[in-house]
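Database export, one record per block. Field names are fixed; values are copied verbatim from the stored entry.
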Amino acid sequence: MSQGTPGATAAPDEATDDGAASPASGLPSGSIDLKGDNDPYLGEVVVSDEEIQSRIADLGARITADYADRPPLLVGVLKGAFVFMSDLARSIALPVEFDFMAVASYGSSTRTSGVVRIVKDLDTDLTGRHVLLVEDIVDSGLTLAFLLRNLAARQPASLAVCALLVKDIEVSVPELAYVGFRIPRDFVVGYGLDVAERYRNLTCVRRYNGPESQP
């Protein structure tokens, strides 16, 4: 994960009811279309809701087969992965368990600070467990590399990654067992991904063209 980390927060002023921009975040306020069609800061759809749900069904079937004799502990990376993990878990026909951790790497902008820190740690002992790390998006690979080093030190029986989105950039990222979609390097929002805590509840993934939109 990188986009949509808990550090990417900017508390908005009280919302207006006329669809104007929120003074604190600079983003539109008021009622929204859950596909984002009426938002001037959103560009084209990168991954549609139909494509997401179809791919999740495929991933769930693969994970069910791969972990048939060793139900995994799903570790979700907050906040961005919570939507993906919820749908993914319901596509895995195994008695999976859940835990969550949160890391911060973005501060209050859409550009990485390069520094990763744990904001919320796991409650579960990973010793001897089959752990599947569920990520919303992999871009620079810095956050994922940090998480894998940290989790591997806890002596799980196995450790793999399932990422919904992987950006097409020229960096070396850890091996990913399960990938939903490879996308351009544009900054994207929706389906759990945010800017200043906005857009997480969109049903699709869209390019973000608003303030600080450079990847």
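Remark 1: Strands lie at 42-47, 73-78, 97-104, 117-120, 130-138, 158-167, 178-183, 188-189, 205-208.
Remark 2: The chain has one domain: 42-208.
End of record.
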